[in-house]
Amino acid sequence: MANWIFLIPLAPLIAAVVNFIFGRWYLRDRAHWLAILGVAISFGVSVAVVAQVARDEVALSQHLYTWIPAGDFQVPVTLTVDQLTAVMLLVVTGVSLLVHIYSVGYMHGDPGFYRFFAYLPLFVFSMLMLVLANNYLLLFVFWEAVGLCSYLLIGFWYRRRSAAQAAKKAFVVNRVGDFGFGLGVMLIFVHLGTLEYTGVFAQVGALPQGTITAIALLLFTGAIGKSAQIPLFVWLPDAMEGPTPVSALIHAATMVTAGIFMVARSWPIFAASPDAMLVVAIIGAATAFVAATIGLTQYDIKKVVAYSTVSQLGYMAFALGSGAWVAAIFHLTTHAFFKALLFLGAGSVIHAMHDEQDMRRMGGLKRHLPLTYWTFLIGSAANAGIFPLAGFWSKDEVIVGAWVGGRPIVAIVGLVAALFTSLYMFRVVFLTFHGPERFDAHTVHPHESPPVMAVPLLILSVGAVFAGFLGVPPERGVFHRFLEPVFSGHGAEVHHVSTATTLTFGLISTAVALAGLGLAYAAYVRGAIKPAVVAARLGPLYQLAYRRWYFDEIYEALIVHPLYRLSVWLWRVVDIGIIDGAVNGVAGLVNFTAQRWRRVQTGLVANYALAIALGTVIIVGVYLIVGSTLFQ
Amino acid sequence: MPVELVRPEWGLIVPELILLGTIALVLAGDLALPRRQHGVLTWVALAGLALSLLSNLTIDWAAGRSTFNGMFQADYFSLFINLVVGVAGILSVMIASAYVPGGDEPGDMPLPEYLALLLLSILGTMLVGAAGDLLMIFLGIEMGSIAVYALTGFARRRVTALEGALKYFLLGAFATAILIYGMAWTYGATGTTALADIAVRLRPVVTGSGGVEPSLLLALLLLAVGLGFKIAAVPFHMWTPDAYQGAPTPVSAYMSVVPKVAGFAAMARVLVEALGPLSDSWLTLIAVLALVTMVYGNVVAIAQRDVKRMLGYSSIGHTGYILVGLAAFSGLSPDDRSVGSMLFYLLSYAFMNIGAFGVVTWLQTRGLGVTLDDFRGLATRSPLAAIAMTIFMLSLMGMPPLVGFYAKYYVILAAVQADLIWLAVAVVLMSAVSAFFYLRVVAVMYFNEPSGEWKVQPTPLLGTGLALMALGTLMLGLLSGPVLDLAQKWVQAFGVA
Hints:
Chain A is mainly alpha-helical. Chain A is about 75% helix and about 5% strand. Chain A has three domains: about 135-490 and about 495-545, no CATH class; about 545-585; about 600-630. In chain A, strands 1-2 form a two-stranded antiparallel ribbon. A two-stranded antiparallel sheet of chain B has the order 1-2. Classes of the chains: A mainly alpha, B mainly alpha.
């Protein structure tokens, strides 16, 4: 199968290119066929390749060509599928396929239909190349490429000012992280002279501790941006301005997990630096907690799901920081199912409510949208960690991983955040689908989505229910045995988890999740607890969460505003005064010379011949005098 | 003494034979077909070129065999020249397809003769690439040049075309005289005209320190000057702007590439393969010529408002860059990237420069002129043509990831490896200068309002050609690695000798 790996990224690429070129004039509202076909081929080949990897337990790779051959600096375009990449391949192509199908219904009638189905396969191509790369430069190139696709898709409705601004914000914030990531890659090359994973991991242990930590932290900076960790998470909630299928695919299931994937891929570097690991764990735990508190207070249905994504990415990050590599990837996988499901479900609700996103104007939708309700409920329960759905197994394992990895405080923060997770998830369910109808029934007539949108919901909810069983029994499930070869060697520590610990944490997790469910039920169905009263009682704490911990305001005051002032000053004084003056001066000088020199071209053939003759005489003369034995 | 007959290995010259057959076919078609069916000959020419290109697959280039008593060599170097010239030929025919029979020039231009001359010139250039003897080089260059002289004046009722052709012809004859004089001196000094033998006989002569025998030096310099004319190096460039401006635009496109390839191929064959032992003497000359040429070409291009003339000067600038590759020669070793980077540059240059002239042709078939003003607002009239032109301009400027960037990058790399840092810096600085006139075209297309009359005209073959070149400019950049590997096999080709 190794010789067919190239088809995995190529099929969506062809679909994207054809849709770009012919979409506007010829394909128009048929553009989705090719896109779905491309992603389906990609999915099919991925399954076959992964099956072989699973059977033979060796990584496959296919060398396509050498992109930049320049002495010591060789950049091969080689696609490698090891077990980690295999998991990512299935997640990316599988979810992509479902989202593509769903989008046919969701984007129906949009004037940019063909454009959507050109961007989306382009994203899939970039994401697949990102996970298939065998070296850091290729990873970096496609890291930027998925960022670009994300930018294009967030700003898909570019006539809407808020969408354009959200796209810009996502791009700028990600630049900060990417800058650090780029520096990290350069640092690797400077110290090790190679960028290929195998070479880097084999030699990294020999570097001084400080250097390793620097490399690891710089790489993690990239992950902070891409995977929306504190303090760079602010772009992700705004990214919800994009079409909902985009949120499901890019901003929940795939692109945002690229940071987690990259850290897991670079695990020998991180494992060699305990300091860097601690930083990763702390940032992950803080992200999980802060985002969960914000999620409790928001009213926009998509924003709640978005903050939930940030929070879950925090879980994955602190699992990485605790050395629980497999647990992080496991949570990444289950999360892809239930979070894509939640976004698509939210999209279905928004679609039914004619683009209403505020939960205060919903309620009672259970009757109108039964299928959406049940699938959304499954997704919420999975996210909340209700036994025995997917989220329960993976989240529990993440928390246990932190505990046995020697980070008990992180594990406890994880448990507290889990309580909030369950609370905000069921708050959404109850506010949206239960209780009285708070919308104007005369103007809004909620209707169930068409089958093309319903089927992906059903398939994803099957995944949200059963994906967790891949990891059962904990620590020894199919998933773990499959991934184990990737995370061994290079001095890997293996923590053995006793059955007692597993059971204890399973029980605690279940209790916490049920407590959240109970609180939400009491507050939003029975009315035993008045949310408004609680909010007032908490006062500043509630405001802190509701205002998203003032991150945006702080950035505005500390960075954006001063930068803006500085740019204006640079523009008025430095640019116009100094640089433009210098540039115009040089250009003027060159132009002056050009005007002089063109006079040489007289147009007379005799002059031209004279130039040739003179040139010859001068050259021959100089050479005979300087270079020959004639005058020596 | 019995004369020993050598049976020629016909298999080695299959690409050339196919081209020869195509020429005969085109000429026969001229006689046999009625005038309005001459359009079919375009397809005959394209098929012949494609077949000739494909037939390269039948030859075992790695063996590096020669035939006709060493006159003709089939090695990796000649393969790459065949590739460049074949591709350039196909693209030139495609962009000429609408223009030549279009009737925009005063007087008519007979398509069959046009195609026959074009193919003849391509054949000549292929012979230069495969030459194993000074006489073959002379033969090939003249075969290529004389056909191009005729093509330059092909619009025979237009004064500027005749002027350009006459200047080109007179000065070309002058330069050829110098070239053949240099060959004579070489023969006089070494007693042979076979390239490999010249190298063998020179090697013992130059091992000692101190200067070189004056007659050898004279031979070397005259050869360099004669070939310098063919590639339009300063100060032997003066025919270029007049000829480019005067010739019908598709001819300008063609002669900005293929005769230049012939000149560079001859330079590599003569200087590196035959006069390689004298490299200490010619390296400085080539490096200085490279510097002067690139500075002059790029600076004067700024003052031009006629786009064809601007491209003429810009091609002088590119000659300078390509010479940098040659100047980086250090010896026949796999690490030496000099000739390899030169070959890669020539291939990429074929795509982007014929492309740029192609867009000018495209405008002309729609009733517009060739000045900057005619490019005004092209983006609103035809976004695709504007995008293609933007790609060509950015690539000529050296913008990644387009092929022009990689071409310059490999040349710079070669220069750095040969410790010619000053030359590498000059390439970068001149690329910055060139941004001025390349980007001006882009700016005019996008930021100005259209002016002048516009006539709708379907030109499918020309359009396809432009699309192919734009795509090639992009793809060749992304796939530069394998192509460069192929070019780099020149070491093997010259090493066998």
